[in-house]
Amino acid sequence: MIEELLKKLELSNSKLLKMSFTHSSFLNENFSNTDLESNERLEFLGDSVISYIVAEYIYEKYPNLTEGDMSKIRSLVVQRSSLANLAKELDLQRHMILGKGEEKNNGRIKESNLCDLFESFIGCCTLELGIQKTKIFFLELISYKIDSIVKKQIFNDPKSKLQELLQERKMPLPEYITELNNSGLFETNIIINNKSYGKATGERKIDAEKSAAEIALNNFYIL
Questions:
Q1: N or C of the chain: less Cβ packing under 10 Å?
Q2: Catalytic residue among 43, 47, 102, 187
Q3: What distance separates the 2 farthest-apart alpha carbons in the chain?
C-alpha cells in the first residue's frame, strides 16, 4: 500500500522519507549509525502543518462558527487517536523503523507512536511536495471527518448527544469514571459495554466529562 501511496503523491523514496519512519528507539540502539536521524523534528513540523490546514479549512468553510467552536472542532480532529487512526488507514506503521526493545513493547501499535508517525509523514510531505500538495492530500483524508463533526454538532453539549446516540443504537448508557490524577486534574474515562471510548482531563470534573464525551462521540462517528 505504501508503494501506491508514494506513487500517487509522486513522493520519492528519499532519505527524508526514511527519516519520517525512524523512531528514536532505533537510534538509541544504533547510535553509531550517523546516516539516520529520528522523526522527531519532522513530527514537530507535521504537527504545525496539520493544525494550520485544519484551522484554515474550518475558518473558510464555516464562517458562522465562533472562535471557541472552531477551537473545539480542531482539537477533536487533531487529537492523538484521530491521527493514529489515519496512520493505520495508510498502513504507515508497517514501515516504522523501531528499536528491538520498542518492537517487543508493541511499539508498532502504540497510539502515541502512530500519531507521531503520521505527523512526521506529513512533515516529510510538506518538505518534499510543498504545502499546497500536502494540503490537498491531507484534506482528502480528513475533510469529511471535519464536516461530520460540524453536522453532528459533536462539540456542542457532548454528554447529551452521546446519551442520545447510545439510545438510538440501543446501547447501554455511558459510565463516567472520574478521579483526580497526580497533576491535580480531574481525569474521566467513559466506559460503554466494558470498553473505554474516551479519556480526558480537566480542571473541573464537568470539563473532564465533557471532553471525554466529545472524544467518545468522535470515535463513534468518524473513526
A1: N
A2: 47
A3: 58
Residue 13's alpha-carbon distances to 5, 16, 19, 20, 125, in angstroms, are: 11, 8, 11, 11, 11
Which candidate, 30, 129, 120, places its Cα nearest to that of 83? Answer: 120
The string of DSSP letters for 53-95 reads HHHHHHHHH-TTS-HHHHHHHHHHHHSHHHHHHHHHHTTGGGG
- Say what the pTM is: 0.74
Query: Domain limits of the chain?
Result: 2-156, 158-222
Choose, from 43, 102, 116, 119, the residue flagged as catalytic: 119
Q: Which CATH architecture does the domain made up of 158-222 adopt?
A: 2-Layer Sandwich (3.30)
> Are 2-156 and 158-222 in the same CATH fold?
no
Side-chain half-sphere exposure of 171, counting CA atoms within 13 A: 16
Annotated active-site residue 119? The verdict is: yes
Along the chain (223 residues), what's the average pLDDT of each consecutive run of 10 residues? 72 84 89 80 97 97 92 87 89 92 90 94 94 95 90 79 86 93 91 91 88 85 53
CATH code for 2-156? 1.10.1520.10
- Is residue 35 annotated as part of the catalytic site, yes or no? no
Distance CA 23, CA 4 (A): 23
Burial class (CB in 10 A: 0-12, 13-18, 19+), 129: middle
Q: Which residues of 184-218 are buried (b: 16+ CB within 10 A; e: fewer)?
A: eebbbbbebeeeebbbbbbeeeeebbbbbbbbbbb
